[in-house]
Amino acid sequence: MNEWEWQLLEEKTPVDHVEIAGVEVRTGSRVRLRPRKGGDVMDIALAGQIATIECIEQDYESKCHVCVVLDEDPGRDMGLLRQPGHRFFFDAEEVEPLSDEEVRQLLAVQKPSILVAGICNIFLGEDAFGVEVIRRMAGLKLPESVRISDFGIRGFDLAYALQDGYETTILVDACPHGQAPGTLYVIEPDLKVLDDPAVPQAAVDAHAMNPMNVLRMARAMNIELKNILLVGCEPQTLGGEEGQMGLSAPVEAAVDDAVKLVESVIEKILQNKALNHKALNDKALNDKALNDKVLNGNGPGSKLGPKL
Question: Which residue range forms the structural domain that includes residue 158?
C-alpha cells in the first residue's frame, strides 16, 4: 500500500454500522460466517462458525470489511484487544446476521455465570494443585452455566477473562493458611484491601500468578468483581529455590476431595440462585394480585370503592 492509499484510509469517515441482508449490524453484533466458495483452508475451517463483530473497517475503495472474533476461540479475549491471530476479516456478504431469537438462545447456552479457575505453577511443587483439580474436573458433566479453565501462571489472561461478567468466580490454588498439609478450605477474599493504599502491592508479572494481584489488576481495568471465592489447599512445600515437580502425598490425597468440594460449592450457588429467582417470581405474582385487588376496589388503601 502506497502513501496515497494510506492517506485515503485516514480521510475515511469511521463506519459504525453496515446493512447486511436488510439487517443493520454493528460492533458487538453476532453473526454466522459464510465465506464464499473457492476460498482457502482457513475459510473452510471457519465456515458456519458463530462470531462477534469487533469492528467494521473501510478500505480506500470505500468497501466495508467486517472484523470478527470467534466465540469458540480460546484466545477470544486477545481478539477483543485487537491482537493479531485472533481477528478475522470478511466481506459484508460473507457474514450472516443472527436473528434475535438465535442470539437469545446462544446467550442462554453460552454465557456461563460461574468461572472455576485453576491457578498454579507446576514447577513449584504443591502450586500445581489448582491445575490438577481442574484436570480432574474436565471429565465431569457440569451445568452449562459453569466454565472451568486452567490459567496456570497466565495472570493477564485471568484478568481479561473476568471481563465476561461472571456472577461468581471460584479460584482453586494452593495457599498457606497455617493448617496441616492437605487441609482444604473455602474463603472469600476481602476485596476492600484492593483499594487500600496502606497494603503493599507487589508488581504485576505476566508470567506469575498471585490471586490478589490479578484481582487488583482487574479492578484497575474497571472490571466489576462480583462474588470471588478461593478453594485452597494447605501445601507441604512450594518447591523451594530449585523448584519441584509433583504433589506431596497429603496434597495428592486431597485433590479428589477438592473436586467434590468445588462441586458442592457450585451446587450451593446454583440452588441459592434458583431460590432467589423463585422468590422474585413469587413477589411479582403477589404484587400483581395486590394491584388487581386495588384496581377492583377490594385491596387495602383502595379509594375506588367496589367495582360494579
Answer: 111-268
